[in-house]
């Protein structure tokens, strides 16, 4: 291991953590760097989970300190993601994620159209329970994707919370970081059990991710939906380019 690897990972983590809290797709920065440093994809995937967990603990604490917390709803949504996250993490050890990248390309188009709407769709009388049930079912699928690949999972979670549960984007991000942090614990354990975590590199990356998460939490609460939409749009464009051109 070269001596500059760990400072580089911490530096990269700041950008990844900020983007992950404000929108999604920060792992598409950190994962290629881990692979560039010599980790095989499954090891990079597992190592990245260390930083994701620390990042989201930091973000949840930051939102709570600023008065944004709804632990009951966050926890119930998180519980829906955990079975899928475990299954996805088990699959990720052996399965090529190329198919999921193609699926995500379609999801990106739908996600950006939904999030860029100025307000959630108008409520239909008597539809509340159905939308809530759909949200919980959709979370199970998001959990599988998050356990499998992680990168860009926020692009799935944000429209679920925004459209189906009709939350404003600040609260969408508040719940998102709790949910991702929650399902990351069992997913990380799966990767660790398979020997697919470089702990030292993961903690170096986590230092940066935590700093980026703290900044992202502050910007989310201070500047609100306008800033979230701007970062979300840029992140979607960047991720779309990456998916198209590899």
Low-confidence segments, given as residue ranges, are none
Task: Give the count of structural domains.
Answer: 1
What is the number of helical segments per DSSP (H or I, 4+ residues)?
Answer: 9
Average pLDDT works out at 87
The end-to-end distance, rounded to whole angstroms, is 27 Å
Key terms for this structure?
246 residues, mainly alpha, 9 helices, 80% helix, 0% strand
Outline:
The protein has helices at 5-22, 27-36, 41-65, 71-92, 98-115, 128-148, 154-164, 169-193, 199-245. It has 246 residues and is mostly helical.
Commentary on this structure:
There is one protein chain. With 246 residues, the chain is mainly alpha-helical. It has one domain. Helix content is 80%, strand content 0%. It has nine helices and no strands. Helix 3 runs antiparallel to helix 8 and helix 4 (71-92) runs parallel beside helix 6 (128-148). 49% of the residues are buried. The mean pLDDT is 87.
